[in-house]
User: Fold this.
Amino acid sequence: MREKLSLAAARRIALAAQGFADPRPSGPIDRRHLNRVLARLGLLQIDSVSAVVRAHYMPLFSRLGPYPMSLLDDAALPKKRRLFEYWAHEASFLPLETWPLMQWRMERARANDESEIYKGLARWAGENKRLIDAIYDEVASRGPTAASDIDGAKGKGGWWGWSDEKHAFEWLFWAGRITTHSRRGFERLYDLPKRVIPPDIFNAPAPRPEDAHRELLRMSARALGIATYGDLRDYFRLSPDDVKARLEELVEAGELLPVAVEGWKQPAYLHAGARMPRKVHARALLAPFDPLVFERSRAERLFGFRYRIEIYTPAEKRQYGYYVLPFLLGDTVVARADVKADRPAGVLRVLATYAEPGAPAETADELLEEFRLMQSWLGLERMEVVPKGDLGPALAALAERAKS
Assistant:
């Protein structure tokens, strides 16, 4: 018989696994705090949209509060490197020790295995080996190189608007023949992995694919705390064929415990080392790509929170807004807010706010406090709250009273 857990218990387990059961640091935030978050999460998803701040910066703010963004920037630079970039749950920053665990994916990409690389890119690569080799040779001779540094690499329509040269860079990156050295603005500068990844990690033997899959599942289970098969597979985007036997092995070893969660149709698995706090007193604005909510069906199962990003939805058809941040309070998601950092004007613009069913009476007060922290963290001079959405008028009134 599977142990049965209440939905409330499952929420608290998931939040503790993600670091939300711990109080935010009261003193200076340093590399130790960064390492602790990275060890828990295992990845930081990268996204180019900067309506508030680029997505990979937000999970640290959500868990630690205002921190120097240079801490994360430095961790992805040569002298203090702690992170590398690769495809995990979409494009992600990953701790360096994960490099060997991704060699199987790079090997499959080199073989143009369409289960591990975009089909269009794999097919293009099969017909353009000469150009791929030429771009590789160019990076090898130049050192850190952006795609835009190569003549002809400007987009000219076609698949994703990429030029042939840009296709070559992307294939080489996926295949692990080049990697991100640093960034110029948000543009990647590529170099050879042997010149980017520290030698002890670069030269470490790659585990067998099945061993890598088992370890990635362990990391997923530790980061999620409690999860379905689909949740575990999704975290590092592993295929069903790569997961099923490894999952059974972890259950057999007692590292994953089969459980039933109240209201979940799917069986669940509890990480054997998961914390089960009696209460969680969290307060955090979440990026759309935070690991707590980036698997939308899991967010709905855990919190009753249906979330869809509306960036690509025409403005007149959006339900909540362009860049909407979920708001976590206590042990559940209680609201969402459409937010924009207007950097030229120095204003944090709260464009609309909406309460979830059953949101507590203090939601607006707590949300305003979190916006104040965000404003300070982003270095913006003031905040303007538009009284739009069912929570908007109360939040705007609180913001006005705070000014007087």
Summary: The first strand starts at residue 3 and ends at 5.
